[in-house]
Design goal:
Chain B: One of its GO terms (cellular component) is cytoplasmic exosome (RNase complex). Chain B: One of its GO terms (molecular function) is RNA binding. Chain B: Pfam families: KH_6, S1_RRP4. Chain B: It is found in: Nucleus. The complex is a heterodimer of chains A (about 1000) and B (about 325). With about 1000 residues, chain A is an alpha/beta fold. Chain A has 37 helices and 24 strands. Helices cover about 45% and strands about 15% of the residues of chain A. In chain A, helix 17 crosses helix 18, helix 28 packs across helix 29 (about 830-835) and helix 34 runs antiparallel to helix 35 (about 920-930). Chain A starts with about 35 loop residues before the first strand and ends in a 12-residue tail after the last helix. Chain B is flat, with a radius of gyration of 23 Å. Chain B has a 5-stranded mixed β-barrel with strand order 7-8-9-11-10. In chain B, strands 1-5-6-2 form a 4-stranded mixed β-sheet, with no helix packed on it. In chain B, strands 13-16-15-14 form a 4-stranded antiparallel β-sheet, covered by helices on one side. Classes of the chains: A alpha/beta (about 1000), B alpha+beta (about 325). The interface between A and B is large, with 48 and 47 residues.
Chain lengths: ~1000, ~325
């Protein structure tokens, strides 16, 4: 073990007193402020409720409540819904606990929903210890479904509402934990459905991470349910955070944001300067491979991550959670800790006991799984790994060990940042970028807030530490955005699904349009309308207030200039196309270039544009990115010309310089700049003798002096004649030239051109035009949001259902529709079609299970082996069905990429699942595929869910053989480690 | 007699001929659709065994052949084959709206006769409490069950699901389900009520609620405002309800009674003729009776039956022409 001596922090001495935050709170600024607000539905009459403060609270806590907690509890006591928005560590659970206690006291049912099964399990345990009358319903397990307090996943709650379970008539309080999950692209819609359909007269408790638009959400709930909804918002952290940067290759931490939220610029710069340039790593990334320095670290040398962990342990900043963004990376980093041992012998014994007592429920074969046996040595040294690829049971053991303080250093993925209170003293981000499906982007401030929420243990640490490992230069503004930015706002991710439509159509009261109208999505678009209107009006007013004299003739002139410019550009494009001008771009040629003004965003309205002369040094081809341009003709490629000319250099920050080309006579430095060919205005027939070495400043000055001398003799600069010298015969060139001559003639006649201040006036006119265009686009946006969102899609999707015979033309759900109603864990249309086509009937149970695995497996494997022939044949049948469904959707104008849709069914785990259904041991099937153990287990569990739904479906069409077959399939796959019970139960 | 479908009417000769003509016409309109798909018990259903098939309700396999176990019409959905029985008892499906009569108040539930092979069960917990409060049901609620519904009360509910033991569970999703008062119940063969988007209909013109139960029980009664209003006027609502139930049927205005009877008779006529019953057809029949200025009692006469049949021929042929 490393010697553990506290070293003082490099820069900041800590402040013991708790921080005060001023939030303009509506009331009590005691210790920590929170904002309390209420949304009332329209036309709601506020009645004074009887003061409930003297009645006994339903639950008393052994500690003093924070103001936001007591505020929220006050609302609960008054029987009002409340939305609590606070950081993960702030203690929102207290509110949930109180709501449960209160409901139980009042003999009411209460439901707690969370987005993740594991979280539900943990909450179940927590509630069960506190209150006895608690049940659990997830897809995997059902315990005591008749209890007064039910913990479930949101999906289960949604389907209960569709089925009209009696619980919906008895539930008084519904607690939605982590409600910010609503912005999840795939699953978020489930929250909206659940909230919209929730029984009338029930009350809600929403617990969410900090979201800036909590008020908007509450307004929506108030509107949909016609009841007041309170908002209690706080961004208080019980333990303040310090943010450090650890530059790659460096060896120290740099305090970037202190616990008062101050950004320390100079320290940030120091950190970046300490960053060791990577060279090698840079190239690798360009090749598309994301390899990091800290991984590549040379043999024998300590890697960055090792150095960092060592430092953390030395400074007693442990326990520490190190977040990375992929499972593989997580494991890889943990492997680099091989030399480190953070636990003493007592702790090792403890870990071993806990570990084996948990593994006891596994069969002997499963205990020998490599993942299990490899994990223990690591854990014993106080190092853990936590990601979704682990066996669920291992994941839970690690969570328990971490909570017990036996794991000092945990490598985790983002999933660890949600859910149960598992704080550490320190949180490390091993990467500043995250892959989001198509590119590596910066971590968003919302993600940063969520993950850094794990830092700082309440009551133990005086402050939490966040360390950001940086391996590339980043702008202070980017860092500020990431470290100090706002939480992501809660936006609707509503979308339609067929299952939703069918369920809505099936019930007498249900109406998909009603659901759409009440959705948060619609609410948000509706809400934007007054804003848009205001904007449009303001812009219109601004436009109308611009009064321009002689507007008509000015307009005329404006149009002429526009034409003239576009013609000029045409000519330039012809003359200075590489084909014609390349031969003249020798070094020493005088060239006339458009000035890049300092304020280039407003176009100029002079006929004569500002130009500057310079000397050509060289020209260069620009390689189009990623293309092999060997076969391209030189004429087609893009070129830049290096020109020596006078430039104005303004410095902004350190990294960026802004260079503006200025005319010769103006002050500036003589510099060589590269200019795209399109910027060339003229080429002179004259050439200068150029010195070969342009590095010394005097040489450049002298050259430019020569240019000025030449120009003072020949003010026109003796341009090349396009037709004579450059031999341009193109007819379009001639035409353009003639038209320009005509236009020039018109200009002379135009009276207004002679008026003073013509440029300013044109500028005003231009802004006016721009305003008009803006107003137009805003009005367009308004038009599209006044109609019901998704209306067209709804129509298209109903068309699909009709064409497939799921509903009749009067929207009555038919037999097939009833089957699809039951299927919510897989693609309902494809699976229903497959079933009605008899595919599932003919094949063996194992084959059927294997085929169904394609519906639940979503990860993409790069080099998965093709399944054997029989299975592949089945998979082809599945693809045919999917393609049919996909094409039909396209025909019905549902926006869908058919091939994408077809390839969303993955055959990767068919073999493994086939073997599992045949009765193989888990270690045997793990040898068949390369997937993570945890992922496979999750897929098989989901498969069981689908089978349960299919049993219901088969029952409703009266096909008893199929029903029996599904039952058999369930019994075949539901065994051993895959369905091992959670340790939390 | 096939043509008249066993209608017990005293028709004179011309009426007979007119009715037969109308019904033949109607049959000819649909003859193409209803080809020889009808089977009786033990009839072999022709299938192509090369394709795999799924055998649904009303079918069985015997000696390598698919045979019908019901009299009815063979329906095919992709590879699924099932027999839809005509003129059978009601066969419930999840989501159906039914009207039923309480036959027993049992432990925590009511048993309802809904024209199914067994009584349906409406759990105490499957209905909303009249005051709209969301809470667990207590022993006191159980004792007070007769306050909600007692034997012979009529109740409207939705089919929720089949339990594992095969019993049928009902539910009352919202306040618009529940006890039916001040009106009359009609029983028609269940196959005449097709599943529709809406089974609750409010005929504003007559001030009458019409509930077309999928089980062939049709309710025609005085319109009741959906009690599902917001929580604030909960208090007044319960008072209203109390006073309403106290009010006996005697103080129903005669006009309302006439309306109810008129609609009920129109349905009776349609049911006698064996026409499927939906709002459109009912309104058509009522309008016809108003146009002819017929008394309510005259609506059940043979002449009106024939007229309705002829009117239906007109309507359907105009539909098919379109």
């Amino acid at each position: 073990m490393e010697s553990a001596k506290r070293k003082s922090m490099p820069t900041e001495a800590l402040r013991p007193n708790k921080q005060h935050r001023e939030n303009g709170s509506a009331f009590s600024i005691e210790q920590v402020a929170c904002v309390h607000d209420v949304s009332y539905p329209e036309g709601y009459v506020i009645t004074k409720k009887p003061d409930s403060s003297d009645t006994k609270p339903a639950k008393e806590f052994p500690f003093a409540l924070d103001p936001f907690q007591s505020e929220a509890i006050k609302c609960l006591n008054n029987g009002d819904s409340v939305m609590v928005s606070a950081h993960t560590s702030a203690g929102k659970t207290v509110v949930a606990l109180y709501a449960v206690a209160m409901s139980l006291r009042n003999m009411q049912r209460v439901i707690y929903t969370s987005p993740i099964k594991a979280l539900s399990n943990q909450k179940f345990r927590e509630f069960k210890e506190e209150f006895s009358d608690v049940g659990l319903m997830t897809g995997d397990v059902t315990i005591d479904p008749n209890a007064s307090c039910l913990v479930m996943t949101t999906e289960i709650w949604r389907s209960m509402q569709y089925k009209g379970s009696e619980i919906t008539r008895e539930v008084a309080w519904i607690i939605f934990d982590e409600v910010h999950y609503m912005r999840d692209r795939e699953r978020g819609v489930v929250w909206e459905e659940s909230i919209v359909m929730a029984p009338k007269n029930s009350r809600f408790v929403f617990l969410s991470a900090t979201v800036p638009n909590a008020k908007e959400f509450a307004d929506w709930v108030a509107k949909v349910h016609q009841q007041p909804c309170h908002i209690v918002y706080t961004d208080y952290r019980p333990t303040p955070l310090q943010h450090y940067i650890f530059p790659a290759g460096g060896d120290g931490l740099y305090l970037t944001v202190d616990e008062k939220g101050k950004f320390r610029e100079e320290s940030f710069q120091k950190a970046l300067n300490a960053l060791v340039p990577k060279g090698e790593g840079e190239k690798k990334r360009e090749n598309g491979k994301w390899q990091k320095d800290l991984i590549v670290g040379k043999l024998g040398e300590e890697t960055d991550i090792f150095k960092l962990v060592k430092m953390i342990i030395q400074r007693q900043y442990d326990p520490v959670i190190l977040f990375s963004f992929s499972k593989r990376e997580c494991e890889f980093l943990a492997m680099q800790m091989a030399k480190m041992d953070l636990n003493n012998d007592d702790e090792k014994v403890n870990i071993e006991t806990i570990f084996w007592s948990a593994m006891d429920m596994l069969s002997d074969d499963d205990k020998k799984l490599p993942q299990v046996s490899n994990m223990l040595p690591l854990l014993k040294r106080g190092i853990g790994v936590h990601h979704s690829g682990l066996l669920p049971i291992l994941k839970e053991v690690i969570e328990i060990l971490f909570q017990e303080g036996l794991i000092k250093c945990l490598f985790a993925t983002e999933t660890f940042s949600i859910g149960l209170n598992m704080p550490a003293k320190t949180v490390v981000f091993t990467n500043v970028r995250k892959f989001d499906g198509d590119k590596f982007r910066w971590i968003s401030s919302g993600e940063y807030i969520q993950m850094s929420g794990r830092a700082g243990r309440r009551g133990i640490d005086e402050r939490g530490v966040c360390i950001l490992m940086v391996d590339e230069k980043l702008e202070p503004s980017t860092a500020k955005m990431m470290l100090k930015g706002n939480a992501d706002s809660l936006n609707s991710a509503f979308h339609l699904t067929y299952n939703m439509l069918l369920n809505q159509l099936r019930s007498e009261d249900g109406d998909p349009e009603n659901l759409l109208r009440n959705s948060f999505y619609q609410f948000q678009t509706d809400r934007a309308i007054p804003d848009l209107e205001k904007q449009a009006k303001a812009l219109e007013e601004e436009r109308d207030s611009m009064i321009i004299e002689e507007e008509d003739s000015l307009k005329n002139y404006y149009e002429l200039i526009k034409q003239y410019k576009s013609l000029k550009k045409d000519i330039r494009d012809i003359v200075f196309s590489p084909k014609y001008c390349l031969p003249y771009l020798q070094s020493g040629r005088l060239v006339c270039v458009q000035c890049t003004g300092t304020d280039d965003n407003s176009p100029s309205f002079l006929i004569e544009e500002p130009i500057a002369w310079g000397v050509v040094v060289n020209f260069d081809r620009v390689k189009p990115a990623g293309e092999d341009d060997a076969g391209k003709k030189p004429a087609d490629a893009n070129y830049t010309v290096d020109v020596l000319m006078r430039c104005l250099v303004s410095r902004e920050g350190i990294a960026k310089k802004k260079i503006a080309i200025v005319p010769l006579k103006e002050p500036g430095e003589p510099l060589v700049v590269s200019v795209p060919i399109s910027q060339i205005v003229n080429l002179s027939s004259a050439r200068l003798y150029m010195s070969k070495d342009l590095l010394p400043l005097e040489v450049r000055e002298n050259t430019l002096k020569q240019v000025s001398e030449f120009l003072s003799r020949k003010p026109t600069g003796l341009p090349l004649d396009p037709e004579g010298d450059m031999k341009i015969q193109s007819s379009s060139y001639k035409k353009a030239v003639r038209r320009i001559e005509a236009l020039e003639h018109l200009f002379e006649k135009h009276e207004i051109a002679k008026s003073t201040l013509i440029e300013q006036r044109l500028r005003v006119l231009h802004t006016k035009y721009e305003l008009t265009a803006k107003v137009k686009s805003i009005k367009k946006a308004m038009r599209s949001s006044t109609v019901l969102a998704f209306k067209d899609e709804l129509k298209a999707r109903k068309r699909v259902l009709r064409r497939l015979g799921y509903i009749t033309s009067d929207d009555v759900v038919e037999l097939k529709g009833k089957v699809a109603c039951e299927i919510s864990s897989a693609d309902e249309l494809t699976l229903t079609e497959l079933m009605f086509n008899g595919v599932l009937k003919d094949i063996k149970v194992e084959e059927m299970v294997s085929l169904l695995s394609c519906f639940v497996w979503q990860e993409k494997l790069q080099d998965a082996a093709k399944p054997r022939e029989e299975l592949d044949l089945l998979f082809t049948q599945l693809q045919d069905a999917a393609r049919m469904v996909g094409k039909l959707q396209l025909e019905c104008k549902v926006k869908i990429d058919v091939e994408n849709f077809v390839s969303s069914f993955r055959p990767d785990i068919m073999e493994a699942v086939y073997a599992w259904a045949k009765g193989s041991k888990f270690y045997e099937i793990m040898e068949i595929t390369q997937v993570f153990e945890g992922s496979l287990i999750r897929a098989i569990r989901r498969l069981e869910e689908v089978l349960q739904q299919l049993i219901q479906a088969a029952k409703s069409i009266g096909e008893t053989e199929l029903e029996a077959k599904f039952e058999e399939a369930v019994s075949k796959i539901k065994r051993d480690i895959v369905f091992a019970a959670s340790l939390y139960l | 007699m096939e043509e008249t479908r066993g209608i017990q009417l005293s028709l004179n000769q011309t009426q007979k001929i007119r009715l037969r003509k109308a019904i033949n016409h109607l049959q000819s309109l649909y003859s193409k659709i209803n080809s020889n798909a009808s089977v009786t018990v033990a009839d072999t259903i022709p299938v192509n065994f090369e394709d795999s098939i799924l055998k649904g309700h009303g079918t069985s396999e015997r000696d390598g052949e698919v045979v019908a176990t019901l009299c009815g019409v063979v329906e095919r959905v992709n590879k699924l084959i099932y027999v839809r029985a005509l003129r059978a008892r009601y066969k419930p499906e999840i989501g159906d709206i039914v009207v039923g009569r309480v036959v027993e108040v049992a432990q925590k539930c009511w048993k309802l006769e809904i024209n199914f092979s067994q009584d349906a069960v409406l759990m105490l917990s499957s209905m909303n409490l009249p005051d709209g409060i969301q809470r667990r049901r207590t022993a006191i609620d159980e004792l007070n069950m007769r306050r909600f519904f007692e034997e012979n009360d009529l109740i409207c509910a939705e089919v929720r699901n089949f339990q594992h033991d095969g019993s049928l569970q009902l539910q009352a999703r919202s306040q618009k389900y529940g006890k039916l008062e001040r009106g009359q119940l009609l029983r028609v063969p269940p196959y005449l009520v097709k599943r529709q988007k809406q089974h609750f209909r409010h005929l504003e013109h007559f001030g009458v609620d019409l509930i077309l139960g999928c089980n062939g029980f049709i309710w025609v009664g005085e319109h009741v405002e959906a009690r599902d209003t917001i929580a604030e006027d909960r208090v007044d609502n319960t008072e209203q309800q109390n006073s309403k139930s106290n009010r006996s049927a005697h103080d129903m205005p005669i006009e309302m009674r006439r309306n109810i009877c008129q609609i009920a008779n129109a349905i009776r006529v349609l049911s006698n003729l064996g026409f499927s019953i939906n709002l459109e057809v009912i309104l058509e029949a009522i309008n016809l009776s108003i146009k002819l200025n017929l008394g309510i009692d005259e609506m059940l006469g043979s002449e009106f039956h024939v007229l309705v049949a002829e009117r239906e021929v007109e309507r359907r042929s105009s539909l098919t022409k379109k």
